[in-house]
Amino acid sequence: NGVFQSPTTGNPYTRCTRNSCRTRRTASQRSAASMPPPILETGPSMGSLRSTTTTTSKTASSSARRGGRPKLTYCKMPRAQAPANGFGSLAALVLLTMLAGATAGKLPSSQPTATTSISLANSGFTGTIPTEFGDLTDVTYLALNRNTLTGAIPTQIGRLSKMTNGFYLNTNKLNSVLPTEIGQLTEMTYYFQVHSNQISGELPTEVGQLSKIKGSFYAGINPFTGTLPTEIGAMTSMTTSFYLANSEFSGLIPTQIGTMSKLSYGLFLFSNDMTGALPTEIGQLSEMTSNLDLYTTKLDATLPTQIGGLVKMKKYFQFHGTSLTGQIPSQIGNLVNMETCMYLMGLDLTGTMPTEFGNMAKMFTRFDLYSNTLTGTLPTQIGNMEGFGGYMRLMANSFTGVIPTQVGRLTEMTQYLQLYSNTIKGTLPTQIGKMTELTRDMTVYNNELTGTIPTQFGQMTNMLNDFELQTNQFTGTFPTELGNLVKMTSYLYLHSSQVTGTIPTEYGNLEMSAAFYLSQTKISGAIPTELGQMNYMTNGLYLHYSSLTGQIPTELGNIPMVSNLYLQYNEISGTIPTQFGKFTNMAYSLYLSSTEIGGSIPTELGNMDSFYANAYFDTGSLTGTIPTEVGNMPFTGGFRPNSNTLTGTIPTEVGKWTGFTNTFYVHANSISGPIPTQFGLLTGMTSGMYIHTNKVSGALPTEFGMLTGFTGYNYMYRNSLSGSLPTEIGKMTGMSIYFRMMTNKFTGDLPSEIGQWTNMLYYFETYAGSMTGTIPSEIGRWTGMQTLFGPYAQSMKGTLPTELGQMTAMTQYFYVHSNSISGTVPTELGQLSGLTRGLYLNTNKFTGTVPTQLGNLVQMSSQFLLQRNTFTGYIPTEIGNLEEMAYDYRLGTNQLSGDIPTELGKLDQISYYFELRTNDLCNDIPTEIATVSNSVTSYYYVTTGNELGTCCLCMDFVDNLATTTVTVDYGNEGYTGTIPTQFGRLTDATIFNLGTNDMTGTVPTELGNMAKVSSFDLSMNTLTAALPTELGQVTLATAFTGAWSNKLTSTIPTELGNL
Fold it and tell me: pLDDT, tens digit, for every residue of 940-963?
């Protein structure tokens, strides 16, 4: 059929078949089409020589009967049977195999030295080529191709200096490098073929010495590397093909390639790694008629203008799969003899499409410029290609302007006029309607075409499939004349436009079998009953996202083979026709979503025993119950009667859907009763159990534990489910996202077995129930948990497990609030350093201090909630590190004491909800906190319920102490302020301890009056200035720790030496 195949089995090159275009061609075109494909292997096969050796037939037949290896026979060829191709003289010996295709084993290493021709092609030989072949210096023809020879080509092969007629080592498994000695075969005249091996390394420069080759040079389909040697320019006698394709050559194409000016059939360099520009010298190959094949290389420059020198080119101008850039030179129009395969698709070409393409009046197929960045308008001159038969592919560019009316002159075109995905404007030319031979792929979608769809398109009565006008801006109505395209079987795409009016009844004449699209338009009116005549339809009828009204015609039930029916998002009313039960071959996609269809789900749908996916019945108006007959439909997914007013129970027959995998949507109805235990039979189910927002009651079935592959979207919230969560759900070890059981009536504990859900990532919610017990420490194994851990708003008790600190992947929403959790907050929560929002610890019974480690949560931006607990102690200065906080910083309604740390002044980005109220905070509000109040626009709660402005544990009680007081021990009590001078009145005191407080200021001189003190301690405060000399009067002191760990200055008084 004219397909140019590669020399390796099953690897055809990309070429056109001549029988792909049904066009009338000129005599010269027919002559060109009758030319045979290029010969990659020439020379006689074993079979063609067998007739010249009649004296050896007996030996051959007896060997065959024995089933052994054929005997090699050496015989003189009679004069009368001398080969006409000149492979030897009368005295020459010919070495040949006697049985074609026999398993021959290894090549013989010893042959008569007078041998002139070796023809052992396709004979099953293995092993290496004997070096002794180099001794056969009279050989002019060597054919060892199509065997399984391995190893290197012997260097001794270079001694065959009389080699002229053919050198065939191709299609073996030879490896190593091509020996430089090849260059000694200087008398080579015809074919040199070493392709389809495993020869590597660089192509030796010595190949340039084969300058007498007139036939072809084939060395491709080998892993050659390096650059092409410039010496190939010496091969100026070559007239047929130069083939180095499917290798690993790199670098530039040498300019010397232009010296092969006699090359006529092909320059095959495709599938290499060559870079740079195509040499301008390529224009010197003026005898080339076909196969300028440089596709799938790394050429990355522009096409040279000299390409116009290839004036005899007829076919296969191929550069696809490269990175050519720039504009297409106008000189390409000099290729006036081009007939087929102009392949410039998938490049980086820019600029306009040259008008000179119109000079290629002989083009009849495969004109491909698609997937570039070509701009401007389509040239009117393409109408000159009046004999063009098929494959004009100009899509996926940036063409603008209008489609030229001259396109209508391509009246012999049978397929592939592809202009889609451009920016073409204007109207569709009515002249396209004259292209009556077009059978497929009239595609202009994804443009900016306007106006009406021409009625003349109804003349294109040979159209079979792919008539695609969608995604434009057409107006008007759908032409009734398109109903004349009675041969159309598939892919009539008229959707996504501004077309109005109704669906023509004539469209019922179309023998459509696949993909009839009229969706996403502004059409209105009723669905014609005539569409029920499309009884060959198998793929789908797509009428969705429009403004259709009326009821669904019962006649649609006459399309028994249809597999997709899209009616969603229309204003269709009425009920679901019972005739849909005739869709016995419907496999998937019955879409009725967002319509006005009411009534009940017909029991007849149970007859659709081939239907397995995507029944979208979420119309909003369905009533009644879910029929038990749906169990007869072999659903695998997509059962969606959600968002209606359905009542009754979930049928137990859903347990028959043993192949069900995902998307069971019955939510937002009024379904009641228990969840069927038969769900446990859907062991292949992986996700999408949507039963929420109903009136379902009872316990969660233990059989859910059988869904071990279930991964997520388990939505049961807003029902009346009760009892404990079964421990069996711990077997659902695939759970990773969306376990949502909140707003039910669950009681009992969270089962520790859910700790086996080590893949959990998002959304674990059990809030607003009546669960008690503790949060299992095993949940700490959810180390990948990122978003919303939520067992909140329950009656959970006990302590917060320290293991939750292992959930270091958490980024947002750690919800344990509104429970009765007690004890201290684990310091390990400070390890959740990736948390950005939502640390909800509020409204519990936490005690102890606020962990300083929470200051590690420096990425927190909102919702740091610790209010309504029983925290005591000071506010840690470390939580002032949460400088990214924007809102909801709440520590109110606790028992925190002391002053407000100045470090909280760094939270100056908070805009609302800064809450410290209802604690025991005291002292003045630091000026830094007052700065925060400037940024908080609402809900700044600091002073209410605190003692701010009063001294925190100031010693204002000293005046009330009796002068006879002996023990003054107020160490480690949290006192602040200065040391009252009134302590000097207590002259009978023997113990004086104010250590480990927050006392400030200087040490009063009056303390020297306490001469009876034996133990004196002012350590670990913030006292400043010098120790007074008067302390030297405390001479009875046996323990004096008045100085260390303060901020005292100056020198130690010498008077302390009195102690």
Answer: 999 999 999 888 878 888 888 899
